[in-house]
């Protein structure tokens, strides 16, 4: 089949997210005037090595946040955020934190998660997360579309749980990172293989 997104796809559900898979999940924690917030975003990735930088995109709104959602609203206030990596063991807590709660309700508490305090920024993170990236906002870019905002951050601190390191290498099979697929589907990474780059 072929379709133009502007004309619609004619399928039971939009296949776009099912095509662009798997996607890592950026579990974004923030702190603002209304309190602490935690929410998962599957439009997330690393975008540069030096200095290390990441991005995530928020694509909808909440009535109590005007043109965006809690995460972007609080990053506008504070200029910082943390990216918590989601392990398979944390899948249910991650899903619980995706609930659309009022701005002053804490998703950490809602999902039954313990908080820890970042080292380099004033922000909480998920204490049980296998790895965490502490980020300082570099810019927020509005994409075409009413509520499409991409937040870019420079990574200024990195947490890795010691038990996940094997001879100095991060062994992701020890925590099995969760990935977002299309529709309501997720997967976890359990098997690896290596390829040597030509030349």
From TrEMBL:
PANTHER family membership: BLR2425 PROTEIN (PTHR43812), FLAVIN REDUCTASE LIKE DOMAIN-CONTAINING PROTEIN (PTHR43812:SF2)
MF-aspect GO terms: FMN binding; oxidoreductase activity, acting on the CH-NH group of donors, NAD or NADP as acceptor
Natural source organism: Histidinibacterium aquaticum
Gene3D superfamilies per UniProt: Electron Transport, Fmn-binding Protein, Chain A (2.30.110.10)
Domain Flavin reductase like: 18-171
InterPro entries (UniProt xref): Flavin_Rdtase-like_dom, Split_barrel_FMN-bd
Protein name in the entry: Flavin reductase family protein
């Amino acid at each position: 089949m072929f379709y133009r997104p502007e004309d619609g796809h004619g399928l039971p559900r939009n296949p776009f997210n099912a095509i662009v898979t798997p996607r890592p999940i950026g579990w974004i924690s923030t702190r603002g005037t209304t309190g602490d917030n935690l929410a998962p975003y599957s439009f997330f990735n690393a975008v540069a090595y030096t200095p290390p930088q990441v991005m995530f995109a928020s694509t909808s709104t909440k009535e109590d946040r005007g043109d965006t959602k809690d995460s972007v609203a609080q990053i506008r206030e504070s200029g910082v955020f943390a990216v918590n990596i989601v392990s398979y063991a944390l899948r249910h807590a991650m899903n619980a934190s995706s609930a659309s709660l009022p701005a002053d309700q804490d998703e950490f508490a809602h999902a039954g998660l313990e908080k820890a305090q970042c080292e380099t920024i004033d922000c909480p993170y998920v204490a049980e997360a296998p790895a965490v990236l502490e980020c300082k906002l570099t810019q927020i870019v509005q994409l075409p579309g009413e509520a499409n905002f991409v937040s870019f951050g420079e990574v200024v601190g990195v947490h890795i749980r010691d038990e996940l390191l094997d001879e100095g290498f991060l062994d992701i099979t020890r925590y099995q990172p969760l990935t977002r697929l299309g529709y309501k589907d997720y997967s976890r990474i359990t098997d690896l293989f290596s390829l040597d780059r030509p030349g």
